[in-house]
Amino acid sequence: MAFDALRSTLRRAPTPADMGELGDIASDPTVDGGIDAVAFGCPSCGRTIARGAGRCDGCGQLLLFDVPARRALSLAGGGVVAGILVTTLLVNVFAPAAPSVVANDPAGAVTAIRGTGTTGSATIPTGAAAALRGTTAINGRLAADAEPLAAASTAKSVKPTEIVKILRRMSIDARAGAGMLKPLAAWPEAAGQQAALAAFYVDLTGQIDKGLGASMKSGDAYRRTAKSILATLAQIAALDADARTLAGQAGLDLVPITIPDAIR
Questions:
Q1: 48 φ, ψ to 5°?
Q2: Which band of pLDDT confidence, cut at 50, 70 and 90, is reported for residue 153?
Q3: The pTM is what?
């Protein structure tokens, strides 16, 4: 009789009731070579569970992504909140300010600013305004370099290394100024200023490049280069005056610059 019962049991899948404590072993996914890639220990009772299971067979703990469901939902909720906060922060930090739009350009094809100064209120493209301000600041730096250049070139014993340092610094500024000019084309009133600045920067960088090709042993060559460049820098006063006239039309404020005696 006992043999018949055992044979009947073996004909169907065993259950914990059939096998007693052996039921835990039979349902353990690590049996027969299971590894961590397919099984893990229940966080609540330690029972080995197949990965992806929705409930622990031992303690009944609900699982989500192999962690207790309550904890998984808590982590997910925290992640969503954190994501929203980070996204909001990034949008507020990096989103460009909404530009004002020219009245006759409802489509917003040309962004512009309206001056608020006391001498004018013309509407000009934002790029042109930035170019006018930027080239004014550049010309201020070039003017400031005129004084040490004059001093180095009029010294009793000219030191080419000192002049070279100044020329290289001026070359960087002149090229930077030239790179700012394109947006001025969007402002018809600035056409003359754009052309004048372009010619100035081309002339200046050409003289600097030619001067830097001289031998470092030739103090006279660097003295002549410095004298020629100082003559070119003398144009800054007129360029600055014209820039301020344009700025006045739009009510823009430009950074003040000083014209040294060396280029007056």
A1: -75, 130
A2: very high
A3: 0.57
